[in-house]
Structure formats: C-alpha cells, structure tokens
Write a structure and sequence with these properties.
The protein is built from three helices and no strands. It is mostly helical. The chain has one domain (about 1-89). The two termini are about 15 Å apart. The radius of gyration is 19 Å and the shape is rod-shaped. The relative contact order is 0.17.
C-alpha cells in the first residue's frame, strides 16, 4: 500500500515538473518561431504583407507557426506521459 502511494506521489511530481517545463518551453518557442520563420524567408516581410492584406502570406504564416506549436506540444505531452509511466511502473 505504501509503495503505491509513493509511486502516485512521484507521478504527481513528474507530471507537475514536466508540465511546468513544457509550458515554459512552449511559451518560449512560440515567441521565437516567427523570428526563425523570418530568417528562412529574408526577401519577404511577413508583417508588412499581412498589414497590406495579403491573405496568402497570412494563411501560410499562420499554418507554419501553428504547426510548429502543435509539434512542440505533442513532444511535450509525450515527455510528460513517459514520466508518468516511469513513475507508476
């Protein structure tokens, strides 16, 4: 009985630490992804094109940024789940 409680406690610790680290990493990457995308397309100023009403640039930029954020989120979720499984085993 006591070993089960200890394992549940470790699972909570792993999930809280992993979730916090994942949230911080996601916030940090979300703020840096547009800068990385700007470096990949030096001839196009996405901000100006979006302000001018260029819908194609806005759609493409939004899809790239959202796909990157989703990918990072999936990786973070897998890491937290791995920690939970390791703690409960």
């Amino acid at each position: 009985m006591s070993q089960t409680i200890i394992n549940i406690g470790w699972a909570l610790v792993f999930s809280l630490v992993g979730g916090t680290a994942g949230a911080l990493l996601l916030i940090w990457l979300s703020s840096h992804i547009p800068a990385i995308f700007d470096k990949m397309t030096p001839d196009i100023n996405e901000g100006k094109e979006i302000i001018r009403g260029n819908r194609a640039v806005a759609d493409y930029f939004g899809r790239i940024v959202s796909a990157a954020i989703l990918g990072v989120s999936i990786i973070i979720a897998a890491a937290v789940l791995g920690g939970l499984i390791a703690a409960l085993h």
